[in-house]
Amino acid sequence: MSVNTAHLNQLPVRLRNFFARYPPQTYSSLVASRQAPPEAEASAEKTLPSPYTPDRDAKGAHKPNRDAYSAARALLYSDPKSPNPFLPKKIFSTGKWLGPKFGLRQQADLVKLAAKYNVEALLPPGPKSTEYKSARLAERGLAIKGTGIGQKVKGHKWERTMEARLEDRRKAMVEMPEMIRLWKQRGHGRGWRQWPKR
Description:
198 residues; mainly alpha; two-stranded antiparallel ribbon; elongated; Large ribosomal subunit protein mL59 domain-containing protein; Ribosomal_mL59; structural constituent of ribosome
């Protein structure tokens, strides 16, 4: 991956400084996706059951498994040799975590600026990146419950039974001419104002 120097000089100073400190050849999201560990790729290829319960009314419905494979979480991979500045880092000797070099607000500003100049793919993957947000939105759904992948919206009772009611109504409309013909044959077609003569 080579970055055109003429294009690089047209970028704002903030992005140029960021790319000077964290070169895209090492830190960009394109490189990170190629350097993902093999077990993550193998788990991505497996078809795991959806973490969402298809039937919300079922007894004993469990919460989603937090350890299950997630495409959005797989995007946030940090190489131990060159740690991602947008992600926290664990120190294995002490078991403590170091926060990311750039906070979420700084990440959001950098992503907006990079998107404006069409160089967002050169930034490291992070929770504010467009790719991560779209993958997470597809997994979790919108703010409306039940709109994610594999989720089911319960809805109101009239919404759940609407399809059957419309089908009954359609069948009744198809059979209506025959019902009218039979009704007239039985002598009911004289009208309610016509009284029998005495």
